[in-house]
């Protein structure tokens, strides 16, 4: 029986024959009278952008769990080859996770030579085959917040994608390689608001995956987790890979925690924590990844404390990682108490470019210098949304438990301050920002997302604190909904309609759809027509048509005016309810579409939550606002990372 060659020539591998690996052509092919295909790599991706030489060097500073055992230097440029010997040793004995190199040998030994990768803190200028990185865009090289890879000779350009990511299972012989390739081809794009050579997620993964066990295993686990939703029999493999990634992360994390000082920046570890923390819900939608994200923030906190010792470029990289955390906190604030992260508060030191002894409180601009793959064009708006959700959840919890630790007046004062900041947001400077480089996600999509977050923040504030918009001269409990909440929710739906489901902004849309759904509430008849069933009233008036013929003239005309007003009110009511019905239909339809292009687990939870909210609204006792959507989420435990 022929044995398939895992490291032989292309021809033998294609024919499932054991190759004798003779160079330059194998004798097996010669004896069969066929042309030997040579010993090329089994996997290639975006190689047209690579210009590599023989004497590459890597000066990327990152943390290694065991520096003495893991010292390597890239010799043939980044290729999907290996993460580390540590990763290989941790594989199960009965599973072949072989990496295939072009020489037929383990790519760990063929592509790496000894070097010391433990270099000073966060010196992230990288040279690999004369690769020079610049974290500033050509248009504004003076800004520490800008990042570009346009001049880099490294394959960071994303693959052209279909509307729905492909999910062909990788060949068993090249599972790690294929999963990493799949991450770059499909997963990176659905994990980012936009995808191009400006995408920080793609740049950092391209830089670190071949030298960091934490990054390599995390990328594999993410790909497998997404594929398992399409190929159910991959579920156990996905869980195993998630475990491998966790072990790699845990090993490096223990070394970091054992050091009082942080002489080197564990970039791979930090990125791996974000990868696993935000994707574990793809395997189990109800798991929020809090243990991983907690460690990510603690690590960021330590690095931020040393920010004044960083170079100009290093601060730019730290600034981007801080924004990544901002988005994670936004997602968590929607579904859980974020107080567990308070010991590692980096909000006050996030702007690493400010003076350490400012004379005035620094004001964060409404619009960022360049778009971030998670927070988009406005990190400030993301922070406001997080603060809003934290305040709203705290208020609902205090009402539920009867707590008086924080008076309602204090809650209301904080809500007013947030409302004013939302209303003052100005996204006009975005016009000066360069395009995303992603044909599916023009800059305007990110602006629309920022505006959607602004509307969402106001919707949550007005639902939780209706006194912000209620008119004191009216006693209507429905006032805040009729005047502000429902109209804002309809506006949010209209905005979402402008964002196609295949736009990179799709990663933000589940949370925005949920927010819109919370404001799509039917008003009680009593709030519009004082105390009686209007249709029955109208019919009664028709029955009395003959009796009014005996009225005097002014009273007679009064009946005419009232009948016309009743018809107008009924028309308005029907149109209003029709608008809410149509908006509800769109929300569910959009969530259904998102379930086909995003990991479906969290989307399924989102749909269940939306339906539960509407069911509670429609069944509530004729008291507008008696049911709050946060209480519905807590009651049914319908939570996930909705982004």
UniProtKB/TrEMBL annotation:
Which regions are flagged for Low complexity bias?
A: 78-87
Membrane-crossing ranges are: none
Q: Where is the Zn(2)-C6 fungal-type domain?
A: 8-36
Q: Name one GO biological process term.
A: positive regulation of transcription by RNA polymerase II
Q: What is its main location?
A: nucleus
Q: Which Pfam families match?
A: Fungal_trans_2 (PF11951), Zn_clus (PF00172)
The UniProt keyword set, sorted, is: Nucleus
**What InterPro entries does the record tag this protein with?**
Fun_TF, Zn2-C6_fun-type_DNA-bd_sf, Zn2Cys6_DnaBD
**This protein's GO CC annotations:** nucleus
Subcellular location(s) per record: Nucleus
Molecular-function GO terms, alphabetical: DNA-binding transcription factor activity, RNA polymerase II-specific; transcription cis-regulatory region binding; zinc ion binding
Q: Where is this region: Disordered?
A: 59-94
Protein name (database record): Zn(2)-C6 fungal-type domain-containing protein
């Amino acid at each position: 029986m022929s044995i398939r060659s895992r490291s032989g020539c292309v021809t033998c591998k294609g024919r499932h024959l054991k190759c004798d690996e003779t160079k330059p052509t194998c004798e097996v092919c010669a004896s069969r009278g066929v042309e030997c295909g040579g010993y090329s790599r089994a996997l290639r991706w975006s190689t047209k952008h690579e210009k590599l030489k023989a004497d590459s060097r890597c000066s990327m500073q990152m943390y290694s769990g065991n520096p003495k055992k893991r010292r390597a230097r890239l010799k043939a440029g980044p290729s999907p080859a290996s993460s580390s010997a540590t990763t290989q040793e941790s594989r199960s004995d009965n599973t072949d996770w072989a990496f295939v190199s072009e020489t037929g040998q383990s790519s760990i030994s063929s592509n790496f030579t000894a070097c010391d990768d433990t270099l000073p803190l966060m010196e992230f200028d990288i040279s690999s085959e004369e690769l020079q990185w610049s974290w500033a865009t050509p248009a504004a090289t003076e800004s520490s917040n800008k990042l570009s890879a346009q001049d880099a000779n490294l394959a960071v350009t994303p693959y052209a994608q279909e509307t729905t990511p492909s999910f062909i299972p990788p060949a068993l012989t090249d599972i790690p390689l294929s999963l990493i390739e799949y991450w770059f081809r499909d997963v990176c794009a659905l994990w980012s608001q936009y995808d191009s050579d400006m995408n920080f997620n793609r740049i950092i993964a391209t830089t670190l995956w071949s030298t960091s066990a934490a990054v390599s295993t995390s990328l594999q686990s993410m790909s497998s987790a997404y594929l398992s939703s399409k190929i159910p029999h991959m579920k156990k493999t996905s869980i195993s890979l998630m475990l491998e990634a966790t072990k790699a992360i845990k090993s490096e994390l223990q070394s970091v925690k054992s050091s009082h000082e942080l002489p080197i920046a564990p970039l791979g570890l930090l990125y791996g924590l974000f990868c696993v923390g935000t994707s574990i819900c793809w395997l189990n939608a109800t798991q929020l990844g809090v243990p991983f994200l907690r460690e990510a923030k603690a690590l960021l906190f330590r690095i931020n404390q040393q920010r004044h010792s960083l170079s100009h470029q290093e601060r730019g990289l730290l600034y981007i990682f801080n924004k990544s955390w901002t988005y994670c906190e936004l997602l968590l604030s929607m579904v859980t108490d974020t107080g567990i992260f308070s010991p590692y508060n980096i909000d006050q030191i996030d702007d690493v470019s400010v003076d350490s002894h400012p004379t005035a409180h620094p004001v964060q601009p409404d619009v960022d210098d360049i778009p971030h793959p998670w927070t988009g064009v406005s990190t400030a708006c993301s922070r406001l949304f997080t603060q809003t959700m934290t305040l709203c959840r705290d208020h609902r919890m205090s009402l539920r438990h009867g707590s008086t630790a924080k008076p309602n007046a204090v809650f209301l004062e904080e809500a007013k301050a947030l409302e004013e900041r939302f209303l003052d947001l100005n996204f006009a400077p975005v016009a000066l920002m360069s395009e995303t480089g992603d044909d599916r996600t023009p800059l305007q999509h990110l602006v629309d997302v920022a505006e959607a977050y602004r509307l969402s923040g106001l919707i949550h504030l007005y639902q939780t604190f209706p006194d912000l918009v209620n008119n004191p001269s009216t006693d209507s409990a429905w006032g805040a909904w009729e005047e502000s909440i429902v109209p804002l929710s309809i506006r949010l739906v209209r905005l979402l309609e402008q964002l196609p489901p295949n736009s990179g902004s799709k990663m933000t849309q589940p949370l925005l759809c949920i927010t819109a759904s919370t404001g799509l509430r039917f008003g009680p008849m009593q709030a519009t027509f004082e105390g009686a069933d209007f249709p029955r009233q109208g019919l009664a008036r028709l029955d009395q048509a003959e009796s009014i013929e005996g009225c005097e003239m002014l009273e007679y005309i009064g009946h005419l005016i009232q009948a016309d007003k009743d018809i107008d009110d009924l028309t308005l009511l029907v149109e209003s309810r029709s608008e809410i019905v149509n908006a509800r239909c769109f929300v569910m339809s959009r969530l259904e579409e998102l379930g086909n292009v995003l990991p479906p687990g969290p989307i399924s939870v989102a749909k269940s939550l939306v339906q539960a909210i509407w069911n509670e609204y429609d069944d509530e006792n004729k008291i507008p606002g008696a049911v709050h959507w946060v209480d519905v989420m807590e009651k049914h435990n319908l939570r996930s990372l909705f982004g």
